[in-house]
Amino acid sequence: MSARQGFWLGTISPGGLSVYACDMTVYFPHPRTPGFIQIHRHDAAAVRAELAAGLLGPVACTAPKYLYDALGSRLFAAITELAEYYPTRTEAAIVARHATEITATLPREATLVDLGAGNCEKAARLFAPLQPERYVAVDISVDFLRDALQRLQCEHPQLELLGVGLDFSSSLTLPADVGAGPRVVFYPGSSIGNFTPTDALAFLRQARDAAQGGAVLIGVDLVKPVSVLEPAYDDALGVTAAFNRNMLLHINRLLGSNFDIAHWRHRARFDAGHSRIEMYLDALQEQRVVWPGGERLFRRGEAIHTENSYKYSALAFEALLLEAGFSRIRCWTDSRNWFAVFTAQASA
Ligand code: AVI
C-alpha cells in the first residue's frame, strides 16, 4: 500500500531560509497476514484401527508417519545435524550451488507449494531466485506452520502466505484456496523414499496434477555404499535409535498400549534387493503388549518394521518421473553422487 505525496522541506542556515520542493512515495506497512486452512481431521478410531492392524500382521509394522509426534519431529531435526546423516546437507549444497540453473527450469511468479514444510527453511531459500507469487506450506497440522509462517511474513511482507493442514501421504488434493495458475510442487529431503516405488509413482501422478501445468522440484537420495548408508540410519550418538523407539511412546498414547521402550532395540539395515534402508525395533525379551481390544505376544528377537527409506539411481528415478507423465526432466547431483535434485515439467 503506498501513496504519492508532494510536500515542502526547508533548512535554516547562516545564509537564510532555503525552501525546496520534495516529491516522494510514502510506504505504509502492508497489512498481510498468513492464511491457514486445516483439512486433515484426526480420526482417533481410524488411527487405532490402523495401528492395531499393523501390529497384528504376520510381521508387525507401523506407518512411518507415527515417528513424528512433537518429540519425534525434534529428534528428526537433530538427525539432520548428525555427521552420519548426509542427505539434508548434501541436498542443501546442491540447491545452493545450482540455484540459478535449477530455478531457471521452473515457472516464475508461480505458487510455490512446499510439501512437509515444517519450519519452511528449505523453501524460504528459494524465494530470492524463484520469486514466487504465493507460498503454500503444507504439513499435517497448521499448528506446525504458524510460527514459521508468521516469521516469514515479517521477512517477506509482500508475499502471500498460506498454511494448509493436510495428510498428503494419503491424498494430495489441494484446496481451491491455493489458487489457479501454475505451481511449483516442492518435495525435498528424499521424503519420496519413504513411499514404496508403487506408492511413489501414484504420489508423483498426483503431484503432476497438483502442479497445474507447472513443475516439480524433488530431492532424491541415491544408492551408495552400505558403509555410508547404514550409519546414516544408526548413528553413534543414538539419536536415530531414540527417534525410532520414541514411536512406541507415541503409539502408547494413540492406542492405549503398554509398550516398554526398555525392551526394544533399534536396528537399521540396507536391503540391496529392495534398494532400501529398513528400520526395525527388535524385542529384547519375550513380552505381551496389550491395548484396549487387542494384544500381541512378541517373542525375543521378533521385530516391528517401522520405516523404509528407498534409495534410487538417478536413471531409475527419471524413469519413475517419465512414467508419472512428466517431461523435460533435469537432474543435479553432488560430486560424490550421493543425492539428486530433480526438476520436471507437468505440461507436455
Ligand atoms: C524423512 N525421511 C526422508 C527420512 C529418511 O531419511 O528416510 C526419515 C529418517 N528416518 C531415519 N532417519 C531419517
Average pLDDT, all residues: 92
Low-pLDDT stretches: 1-24
Helix fraction, binned, reads: 25-40%
Oligomer: single chain
Bound molecules: N,N-dimethyl-L-histidine
Biggest sheet, open or closed, and with what strands and sense?
A: 8 strands, mixed
Helices, by number, come to 9
Number of strands: 16
Question: What fraction strand?
Answer: 25-35%
* SS content category: alpha/beta
The H/E string reads EEEHEHHEHEHEEHEHHEEEEEHEE
Neighbour order of strands in the largest sheet? 3-7-6-5-8-9-16-15
Task: Tell me, briefly, the overall form.
Answer: globular
How would you sum up this structure, described in words?
With 348 residues, this protein is an alpha/beta fold. Helix content is 31%, strand content 31%. The protein has helices at residues 44-55, 70-79, 87-104, 121-130, 146-155, 197-210, 226-232, 239-255, 314-323, and strands spanning 2-13, 16-27, 35-38, 60-61, 111-115, 134-139, 160-165, 183-187, 215-221, 264-271, 276-283, 287-291, 294-298, 303-310, 327-333, 339-345. The strands form four sheets. An eight-stranded mixed sheet has the order 3-7-6-5-8-9-16-15, sandwiched between helices. Strands 4-14-11-10 form a four-stranded mixed sheet. Strands 1-2 form a two-stranded antiparallel sheet. A hairpin with a 5-residue loop joins strand 15 (327-333) and strand 16 (339-345). Residues 1-24 have low confidence and may be disordered. It binds N,N-dimethyl-L-histidine. N,N-dimethyl-L-histidine binds next to strand 14.
